[in-house]
Amino acid sequence: MTTLVIGGAGYIGSHMIKRLREEGEPAIVLDNLSTGFADSVLEDELISGNFASEALTAEIFGKYQIDAVMHFASCIEVGESVSAPAKYYCNNVANTLALLDLMVRHDIKVLVFSSSAAVYGHANSGPLTEAAPCAPLSPYGRTKRIVEQALEDFRAAYGLRFFALRYFNAAGADPKGRIGERHNPETHLIPLVLQAASGRRDSITVFGRDYPTPDGTCLRDYVHVDDLCEAHLLALRALRKGHEGGILNLGNARAHSVAEVVDAARRITGRPIPVKEGPRRPGDPAVLVADASAAFREFGWSPKTPDLETIIEHAWLWERQKGVRW
Predict the structure, then answer these.
(1) 140 catalytic residue (yes or no)
(2) How much is the CA Rg of the chain, to the nearest whole Å?
(3) Angle at 323 between CA 317 and CA 326, to 5 degrees
């Protein structure tokens, strides 16, 4: 049994490949390297190309006897999705539907899909369960929700077994510093803060201090990337055993504000981190915190590294080891 990991040269995908290798699970990486990095795929085979290419993907399905797909190849930036929605509907929706059609034709019935808490939109102060209403605030969130709905239809019509895993805020890095988070341009809070600490960035900007939260900055649920990958592995194994799957949250059920992240990074790095003030960004809800108890019930997942300090420590090791070389 071999898994095709689409987007496996990206941040979460490369950590997933590392986890599969640790477990002796055969995997093939397909990535067009538009946002991923070939050197993030430490040892496994990397095929460079577009997952929506029928000829290429069909060739991979046949050559490597693929029985399952993990899909990490979405465009992910909320702000960009507001200014360039065509890119997001094209890649996240149209290309994914093309992939699903190809999977059906090749009788591949197992998919683990990277979804997002952005499907929820505005949230109350408490942790969100999967039953919470979905009212995405951005085209990015809408594309994720459209694919979730399509997956449910493909399950009913074609017997596709899937888990759509709604990440809250993926963060951290490989504890050994071999791979970590890097985007070009970088928009995620923890790497931005640490780039300011290392001197690669003059300062960071806090977007909005007037949210209805204790310190006025957004509250988010940060989950270690290795914990996310463990959930994907458990989901994959459950599906291979015949589980029909479903939609699940992945998070820590702990809320940390933007200001708290900056303060924690200052403590851990011992470095000054200059902060500038900016306006709210379109599509940013005030609070996003997960209730991930359903993932524990379905396949026994719970975070092994839930504390913010350790998440930042691992990300800081990556920044110090690799950041200066980019």
Answers:
(1) yes
(2) 19
(3) 155
Angle made by CA atoms 206, 211, 216, in degrees to the nearest 5 = 65
C-alpha–C-alpha distance, residues 78 and 94, integer Å: 18
For residue 107, what are the contacts with CB-CB under 8 A and spacing of at least 6? none
Per-residue pLDDT at 123: 66
Choose the catalytic residue: 88, 120, 140, 222.
140
Q: Per-residue pLDDT tens for 153-180?
A: 999 999 999 999 999 999 999 999 999 9
Cα–Cα distance for residue pair 259/309, rounded to 1 Å: 14
Kindly tell me if the per-residue pLDDT of 326 is higher than 50.
no
**Domains of the chain (ranges plus CATH)?**
2-170+224-250 (3.40.50.720), 189-219+253-325 (3.90.25.10)
Question: What pLDDT is recorded for position 89?
Answer: 98
Provide the whole-model pTM: 0.93
